[in-house]
Amino acid sequence: MSRADINLAALAQSLRQSRSFAAKADIACVVKALGIETGAIAVGDDCAAIPDGDGYLLFAIEGFINEFVASDPWFAGWCGVMVNVSDIAAMGGRPLATVNAIWSDGQDGALPILEGLRNASRAFGVPMVGGHSNLRMKNSQLALAILGRAKKLLTSFDATPGDHLVAAIDLRGRYREPYPNWDAATSAPPTRLRGDLDLLPEIAEAGLARAAKDISQGGIIGTATMLAECSGVGAVIDIDAIPMPADVAIERWLQTFPSFGYLLAVGAAELDEVLARFRARDIAAAAIGTITEDPRVRIECATQRETVWDLSDRPLIGCAPASATTRDEVRA
Known about the structure:
Blueprint: H1 8-16, H2 19-34, E1 48-52, E2 55-63, H3 66-71, H4 73-90, E3 93-105, H5 106-124, E4 128-134, E5 136-150, E6 164-169, E7 174-175, E8 181-183, H6 190-205, E9 211-214, H7 219-231, E10 234-238, H8 250-253, E11 257-258, E12 261-266, H9 271-279, E13 284-292, E14 296-301, E15 304-310, H10 324-331
Parallel strand pairs: 3-4, 8-11, 10-14
Antiparallel strand pairs: 1-2, 2-5, 3-5, 6-12, 6-13, 7-8, 9-12, 10-13, 14-15
Helix pairs in contact: 4-5, 4-6
């Protein structure tokens, strides 16, 4: 089925009810239970950005679904590094070091996970400097934390009505079946991986964008919704404009977790330069929509337009914008 033949209302409903949206909605429960309030450190971004001298320390953590670790342990280890490095890049930063926590049933159970961690650490050039291990558990589990640094931030809080929503995705890959992971990294040259990730801090430092987010397990539309919520805006997304591989169903692609995939809010004056930087490295990039004052995230195709999520009715992750005063203090 071509994108022109899609029932957009059915697609919007499917996305709303998807596991990818449900997983992100769980964040709101955690934020509420912990009593987290946006203060000096904005909550809801890909990393905590901690002011430090003339820049920021970036701190993030990722944990992995047990079934994923059990079924594809090497790739889980690889992803442990990759997704953390991606979060650092999404904030306009460069990674410094990672630590890990691993549980497994003996050394044999731990070995493929550790090999994945080691291989990704070397490929991305990020040292593994410590962690925690327990090799006497019945099930394998994995979590990693990362530290990075940024000179200028890309945030989830600075998308502005009128900005172009840009998607940049490395399409030179394949699905890691049966999961929704698009793998364009494990067979790529390490120099290419590192150079591609450098694009994000270079864009931040050149002042070409202030807002960005890593396309995560929420997929393109879920990630756009989180970005919109944190910025107190909405978005209209043209699904015909989204970069995607041939012969992949649009519904699956919109819920895909790409190994290299980012959304950026970019001003009109900077759009051509941002797109050119990604395309110069053979990364598919396009303006796929517009940031709006209307706090709905909507998808459109041909003559159809449907609301996927109305943030004025219900937040997704429970991380509403900070006050203007607080945001100015954080960005100072």
